[in-house]
Design a protein that fits this description.
With 109 residues, the chain is an alpha+beta fold. It is 32% helix and 34% strand. It has a single domain, classed as 3-Layer(aba) Sandwich (hypothetical protein tt1805). It contains three helices and five strands, in the order H-E-E-E-E-H-E-H.
Length: 109
């Protein structure tokens, strides 16, 4: 069973805050069934995009699918814009946190 997207986003924001980070919604999608993308960074740098992907064991884990190119950071934001244009139901949540990999490990599978 899947939680409605707006509830999941709210819980991820609280999880980020309780772990010393902050989170902001970059794109608000369909409240119940929208796809969720996570952009993690630390102090506004080193953005990485995580998407939920089906695993062989039947779980759906967040997997890093794109990293910001420091020489061309605009390309990363343009990619997010294209994803938003392709899927108007998509949620994009930006999480600024010291240890992004640890944060992703805290997420339910």
């Amino acid at each position: 069973m899947r939680f409605p997207a707006h509830l999941e986003v709210g819980s991820l924001i609280r999880l980020a805050e309780t772990n010393g980070g902050s989170a902001v919604v970059l794109s608000k999608g369909e409240p119940d069934a929208g796809t969720l993308l996570l952009v993690t960074m630390h102090r506004g740098e080193g953005a990485t995009l995580y998407e939920r992907m089906p695993q062989l064991d039947g779980t759906r884990s967040f997997v890093a699918t794109k990293a910001e190119n420091r020489e061309n950071p605009r390309e990363f934001s343009e990619y997010l814009d294209r994803r938003r244009d392709q899927d108007p139901d998509i949620w994009i949540l930006e999480v600024d946190i010291a240890d992004a990999e640890r944060f992703i490990e805290l997420l339910p599978k």
